[in-house]
Amino acid sequence: MAHTFRGCSLAFIFIITWLLIKAKIDACKRGDVTVKPSHVILLGSTVNISCSLKPRQGCFHYSRRNKLILYKFDRSINFHHGHSLNSQVTGLPLGTTLFVCKLACINSDEIQICGAEIFVGVAPEQPQNLSCIQKGEQGTVACTWERGRDTHLYTEYTLQLSGPKNLTWQKQCKDTYCDYLDFGINLTPESPESNFTAKVTAVNSLGSSSSLPSTFTFLDIVRPLPPWDIRIKFQKASVSRCTLYWRDEGLVLLNRLRYRPSNSRLWNMVNVTKAKGRHDLLDLKPFTEYEFQISSKLHLYKGSWSDWSESLTAQTPEEEPTGMLDVWYMKRHIDYSRQQISLFWKNLSVSEARGKILHYQVTLQELTGGKAMTQNITGHTSWTTVIPRTGNWAVAVSAANSKGSSLPTRINIMNLCEAGLLAPRQVSANSEGMDNILVTWQSPRKDPSAVQQYVVEWRELHPGGDTQVPLNWLRSPPYNVSALISENIKSYICYEIRVCALSGDQGGCSSILGNSKHKAPLSGPHINAITEEKGSILISWNSIPVQEQMGCLLHYRIYWKERDSNSQPQLCEIPYRVSQNSHPINSLQPRVTYVLWMTALTAAGESSHGNEREFCLQGEDTAALGQAPDRLAHA
């Protein structure tokens, strides 16, 4: 079976060879094309191309009927009647140009006689920047160079390395675009100062050129492998006792370390000598994810650094929190003897928390008795309790992680608006771009120097004063009389803004409504009842849903006109107050049926009108609403 296969292979090769020879014979069986001085020429040179017919290969054996045509690729560039044609060609471009000679006879197609390829190029330039490297102590020597401009010809490169004791290594590359060769040999550190010389030579049909020799030692060209097996240890789970470990090749003398928080683009760099695979890091931050990389070098002054190692990512241990919470509060009277206290605080920054905050400890104390009344642990950033309205109360709040607690923030609970002379004056709130509100005020009438700080607080306005609505605040020094609020500000939402001036255990405050962006409300108030009282009526309505108010409401308007009348309606405009949901009208005539409706206005415009109600004022004899017509006219 093997002999049969071998015989078939030899027969196949013979057939292919015969076909190629026959194709060459068939292509030029009628004549020849010759090129002088050579098929390979220098750019800008002139070449002579001759085409001649073989005996008895012309048209009807009459030479005058033979028309020889010379084509450059598929374009005719010359012709001649006879048995031969000579043409001088100049200005050939770099690369390969194909010339074909054809015979044209009367009343017949052109016949191909023969062809030739001409290769135009340049001699190789001197190779530049020859450099050699051995990757790792067990690697092999490889060299790279810059070829210079393209020769457009087949070019062969020979790389030669000479060493001590007349040792010579040589490697060839027959790739025209060759700029890299690996000798496949390993230099050893037995004689680290021994000199080696490398040289590369480029050769083609038009000339040759050699690089300048590059001389180097073992220490010059051996680039260590990147360090591996990188790991980090924290002694006693402390960030202040951190050691980085790694493995290196045996001859490594110098290392450089770089590390950074994973969310940073800037590296911290450290150079260490004779580290032997370990180094202590003293400036890492707690509870921070870091990226570490290491590079190596064999000599302080010679050679090159290894590539950076693969990254090690590790998180440092937690430490006890260092910051103090920013705490604020709200008070609300429940009845004559009780009040509700709602405490709020902001998260510590990452650098202050130094770990994952597990919970918050809240301590409420009545100062007069000096006894801790309430202690609570919560995972939220707010806490609400009910306490007596009597007594002096203080609160302390601290944050805890796995290593300990922050210092407690202590504040005294006082009536923030009790001192009228401390109330800031001329408070205003104006839109300042998208989702920003600029709050400004004037110093209180009392000596401004008494003010220790201002607190600007804001929260979404909800009718009924819902204490569950999140509270936002910022603190401002006493010399500032403005604040730009942007945290949790949304367009088309009205905010209740309060500026508090604090002085010792006293406070004064002023409030205003504000929004960052507004437009006309989407709907008007819904009238839910009309009652008659001593010759006038009382209109009651439901508040417009918050999501339909589209900013801060400024006014309500109540419209009315006689039923079936074409006259313009009368109206009554009422300043908006959060808690108001009814208003009297005393200008209606008895025993006349009226149609009433309401609208709401923001600074951007008026809403569409709400539902319509019909009502007829019966006069003083009417005792109850049930005796008066009161119905919806429209849905």
UniProtKB/TrEMBL annotation:
Keywords: Disulfide bond, Glycoprotein, Membrane, Phosphoprotein, Receptor, Repeat, Signal, Transmembrane, Transmembrane helix. Residues 1-23 form the signal peptide. GO terms for cellular component: plasma membrane. One of its GO terms (molecular function) is cytokine receptor activity. The keyword Protein transport does not apply. It is a single-pass type I membrane protein. It is found in: Membrane. Residues 226-319, 423-520, 521-620 form the Fibronectin type-III domain. Its main location: membrane. InterPro entries: FN3_dom, FN3_sf, Hematopoietin_rcpt_Gp130_CS, Ig-like_fold, IgC2-like_lig-bd, Type1_Cytokine_Rcpt_Type2. It comes from the Eukaryota. Belongs to the type I cytokine receptor family. Type 2 subfamily. This is Interleukin-12 receptor subunit beta-2. The gene is IL12RB2.
